[in-house]
Amino acid sequence: MTASAGLLASDAPLATAYDLALVDLDGVAYKGHLPIEHASASLAAARSGGMRLLFVTNNASREPEDVAGQLTGLEIPTEPDEVMTAAQACAALLGTRLDPGAKVLVVGGKGLVTAVRSAGFAVVESADDKPDAVAQGYAPEVSWTQLAEAAYAVGGGAWHVASNLDLSLPTARGFAPGNGALVGAVVSATGVPPDSAGKPSPTMYRLAVERAEARRPLVIGDRLDTDLAGARAGGYPGLHVLTGVSTARDAVLAEPGERPSFLGADLRALLEPHAAPVRADDWYVCGGAAAQVSDGRLRLDGSGIDLVRAACAAVWAAVDAGETVDAGTVPDLPA
Questions:
Q1: What are phi and psi of 124, to 5 degrees?
Q2: Distant-in-sequence, close-in-space partners of 334: CB < 8 Å, separation ≥ 6
Q3: CATH of domain 87-196
Q4: What CATH number should be reported for the domain whose range is 14-58+200-271?
Q5: What is the pLDDT of residues 262-288, one digit of tens each?
Q6: Distance of alpha carbon 286 from the chain centroid
Q7: DSSP class of residue 38?
Q8: Which residue has better confidence, 204 or 311?
């Protein structure tokens, strides 16, 4: 499966064009513990049209049952087997090099402990136990003592596997340090770069697609550097919704490996056809909006999500042709 480097078109609503949605949580289905407008109704409508949902999260601290319970409480009814966590992906990655029964020092929450044990490994708590690997995931209770044990173990030759490398974590109060920031403390102490199971690695997406036996999966996320980069890395089309971390301006300026295939203001985009911008003379036109890069400067005409799509097409084409685009000419683009 290969996703196009540019925006794709879909004459049918995405919910009928694709059979499985791999849905991120924070910034897509909810923000912190708060609902996101239109998320519940849009996902319900997609399900009623035959699209299956599988929630894929870089959060490794919680059990799938806990995640499913939170979603259900936000009027997004979810079963535990419809959740794929970075903890599960981390355990699967450990299994590519370690035999069952190998000792793993777990730094993280109960979700990671459960996933590592369920994969057949022996969980230990000290570097003195000579672990074969360190599995590290975010949890609010992670302490300096645990980070130190991880550093001692990695310094002694243990394989360091991170559930994800997200530097920040969106919460209802703003952005807090994510697992990548905590992993960075261990890396600073050891100088040893870790392997990562979470997005932007496509491991979780691959596992989720295999679990669902899907033929036409669609990734949905709010972060270009994790959700959409993982989609590109795995060759899956990705829908970027503007309800979380990465903005419309970020999408226009995205590196090729982080570009989405579709853009939407929110999850209502699942229920709509998507027009791809077309080139007309020196302009890229989408709906009633148009964008052009001339002498390295972005020019815009129109508004709304179609303007964001046109701007993406114009800037991406210019950059891919070797032209330098002045980022200062790319404004904030409300969708």
A1: -125, 165
A2: 248
A3: 3.40.50.1000
A4: 3.40.50.1000
A5: 999 999 999 999 999 999 999 999 999
A6: 26
A7: T
A8: 311
Q: Which residues are catalytic?
A: 24, 26
Residue 275: strand, helix, or coil: coil
Q: How far is CA 178 from the centre of its chain?
A: 14
What is the 8-class DSSP label of residue 274? B
Distance set, CA 82 to CA 22, 55, 65, 166, 211 (Å): 10, 6, 10, 22, 9
Query: What pLDDT is stored for residue 46 in this prediction?
Result: 98
What sections of the chain are H helices per DSSP? 14-17, 39-48, 64-73, 86-94, 110-118, 144-155, 179-190, 203-212, 229-234, 248-252, 304-320
pLDDT at 3 over 50: no
Cα distances (Å, whole numbers) of residue 80 to 48, 63, 70, 124: 19, 9, 11, 26
CA distances from 252 to 5, 38, 320 (A): 13, 24, 13
Q: Which pLDDT tens digit goes with each residue over 8-43?
A: 999 999 999 999 999 999 899 999 889 999 999 999
Residue 127 has pLDDT above 90, yes or no: yes
Residue with tokens 């949580």: 25
**Distance between CA 222 and CA 204 in Å, rounded?**
16
For CATH 3.40.50.1000, the residue range(s) in the chain are 14-58+200-271, 87-196
Residues in the chain, total: 335
Contact (CB, 8 A) for 179 and 137: yes
pTM beyond cutoff 0.70 = yes
| 3-class SS string, 42-82 | HHHHHHHCCCEEEEEECCCCCCHHHHHHHHHHCCCCCCHHH
SS3 286: strand
C-alpha angle 216-80-207 in degrees, rounded to nearest 5 = 40
